[in-house]
Amino acid sequence: MAERIVEYEVHDWRFKRLASMNARVVELWKGAAWAEGPVYFRDGDFLLFSDIPNDRILRFVPDLSGLGGTVSVFRQPAGYTNGHTRDREGRLVSCSHGHRRIERTEYDGTITTLADRWNGKRLNSPNDVVVKSDGTIWFTDPAYGIDTDLEGWKAPMEYGGCWVFRFDPRDGRLEPVIQDMRRPNGLAFSPDERFLYVADTGVSHDPAGPRHIRRFAVDDEGRLSGGEVFLTCDVGVFDGFRVDTEGRLWTSAGDGVHCYDPSGALLGKILLPQRAANLCFGGKKRNRLFICATTALYAVWTHVNGAQVP
Ligand code: MG
Q1: How far is the CA of 82 from the centre of ligand 1 (A)?
Q2: pLDDT of 227-269, one tens digit each?
Q3: Which CATH number does 3-301 carry?
Q4: Nearest to residue 265, comparing CAs of 253, 278, 277, 247?
Q5: C-alpha 128 – ligand 1 centre gap (Å)
Q6: What is the dihedral of CA 133, 40, 97, 203, to 10 degrees?
Q7: Measured in angstroms, how far is the CA atom of residue 252 from the centroid of ligand 1?
Q8: Which of 12, 36, 53, 204 has the most CB atoms at less than 10 Å from its CB?
């Protein structure tokens, strides 16, 4: 099953200490229409990810060699889920294009709607989600899942924008935190949660539109300020991304995965034969990068550890 692929582009010598040059990228599985939204369950040692056009969530279980594994259907139909994460109690939190909501899978398998409307108007199609250490759930809401029937059900936008929201499960409050983006997409906090990074893939609807990641300062009350353009993508777009324990960004792009240090310097790239959409750190030590790239799931061992919780 495993296939070895030519892979690294080193832009800064430090990258050789981060991406193990001895570890090859392997194709773990192929067979998705559009793979997205990986999340690793260290307690069960498996990965969940979305295959959006096929309306299913898949589960990858690594085999003993670590070079392959088995994929099975975790849920289908799945409401056209996209990004996934876990909350502080370990429950699966998902973005559903089809149901235009953020939802949580409970321990007994039932699904709870967390947020699907703002001011009485339906959300567009939540795309990616993170949970802050205080339990609040932050997500992006572009319109990709309602633009056409490919990734959900075609429908009009209702509240008239594509915003980033914060949902507080303690009191059920949903509030917009960013309202000036074209198509907000992936998002992640820095390890100390002093910064929130958000990708804008607005170039999909305007050739002169954004293809960048912005950085917002986060204060103690969770309020945002700043929002300067932090990184601009040179190949394709930045879709989903993750941060390691040292605050480096590992982001999907048109040619694979790009790694940037916390100052924004490009350290290196992991080149892939297909366009990458999203990734996450997994394995017991969070030192293996799992990458959803178009039709396939790839993985590579690294010398870094993902900061993603839990
Ligand atoms: Mg995305």
Answers
A1: 7
A2: 999 999 999 999 999 999 999 999 999 999 999 999 999 999 9
A3: 2.120.10.30
A4: 247
A5: 6
A6: 80
A7: 9
A8: 36
Distance from the CA of 33 to the center of ligand 1, in angstroms?
Answer: 15
Residue 246 CA, ligand 1 centroid: distance in Å:
23
Q: Tell me the CA–centroid distance for residue 20 and ligand 1, in Å.
A: 26
Question: What is the DSSP annotation of the chain?
Answer: ---EE--EEESSTTHHHHTTTTSPEEEEEE--SSEEEEEEETTTTEEEEEETTTTEEEEEEE-TTSS-EEEEEEESS-SSEEEEEE-TT--EEEEETTTTEEEEE-TTS-EEEEE-EETTEEP-----EEE-TTS-EEEE--SHHHHSSTTS-----SSSS--EEEEETTTTEEEEEE---SSEEEEEE-TTSSEEEEEE-GGGT-TTS--EEEEEEE-TTS-EEEEEEEEE-SSS---SEEEBTTS-EEEEETTEEEEE-TTS-EEEEEE-SS---EEEEETTTT-EEEEEETTEEEEEE-SS-B----
Taking the CB of residue 181, how many other CB atoms lie within 10 A of it? 22
pTM: 0.96
The CA 65 to ligand 1 mean position distance, Å, reads 30
pLDDT tens for 114-137 read 999 999 999 999 999 999 999 999
